[in-house]
Amino acid sequence: MTAARSIAPVLCIVGARPNYMKMAPILRAFDEHVPAIPWVLVHTGQHYDHAMNERLFSGLRLPTPQHNLEVGSGTHAVQTAEIMKRFEPLVDDIKPSCVLVVGDVNSTLACALVAVKKHIAVVHVEAGLRSGDRAMPEEINRILVDRISDRLYTTERSALANLVAEGVDASWVHFAGNVMIDSLLSSRSLAVPPAATLSEHGIDPALIAGGRYGVVTLHRPSNVDDPEQLRRLAGMLSQAAERLPLVFAIHPRTRTNLEKFGLGALLDNPRIALLPPLGYLEMLGLMDGATVMITDSGGLQEETTALSVPCITLRENTERPITAEQGTNTVVGSDEALFVRCLDDTLATGGKRGRVPEYWDGAAAPRIAADLYAWLQARAAS
Questions:
Q1: What is the DSSP letter of 14?
Q2: How far is CA 109 from the centre of its chain?
Q3: N or C end of the chain: which has fewer CB within 10 A?
Q4: Strand, coil or helix: 97
Q5: Active-site residues: which are they?
Q6: Lateral strand order in the sheet of 10-14
Q7: Average per-residue pLDDT in the chain?
């Protein structure tokens, strides 16, 4: 029997809020693997609200990163370039066994590019998701990262067909399941009650005392940067508030644009509670108790499917089609009539419940750890 070889640290990258809930269970699984898998956590600083980061890291039990590149905001090109410039010296210093990236944000692409150009293996968690919409910056990031990755972990079996169609060798792909759901299931018992979250932000919990309420998030540039589109969606939310109270965790970009375009009055409604961005446990508590989720977030489409909460997605497409095919999600775009019909059906019947997809079981991260350790051992022996 060949003795296990020691491996260099896995360099793990986070940069934005959606990355945190994916990385937290992976690092725990690395620590719990026998033998433990060494890791170094790097935060690029792509999302740079330090108070919110601390709250999210605490809620997810995500360790403090050993390194923060503090790149801040900028255009896609500027931000990607700045991450690459600051990440390269760190790679030279640490000499990792591989660079592990999650999701589809600019940090994911930038760090993967640095690694592949330095002949360091790239591992991509959440590979193979496609919306078919190349107007989305995240779609470009997904395609490029998958094409330069050496080991690819998928959340659903259909992702393999997307990867193979783009020239990825099927033997490089491993179906591990959804690490987002690992975080959700391990945190569900810790979620903050919805009434406590409203009270903390000065909202009377009586707003949701009847137990029927909707939760809203909107942040995608295609929805909030165009004044006419944002006007249309704000009007749809105003209609929804006639049917049930809404709790709107409003993204800074969305709040800024509502003010800039003079649309704030459309949401000036006693049945719409406007909250700032929330911590993970606060949002989880609100979502778990909700009658319906109204969103343009891919991650929330997944989480509501796992929680059996009906979700109405205000986008023309989704890179997570399994949430609509098997889960609780309905994609309505900005079609006002379709949105109202879907909402009314949800209120009348309880809405779409679906089923939880395969391997969305809370054990995706241990499957990744076991496969990655074996893969790294095989590479070291070759």
A1: E
A2: 15
A3: N
A4: coil
A5: 219
A6: 67-68, 39-43, 10-14, 98-102, 121-127, 151-154, 173-175
A7: 95
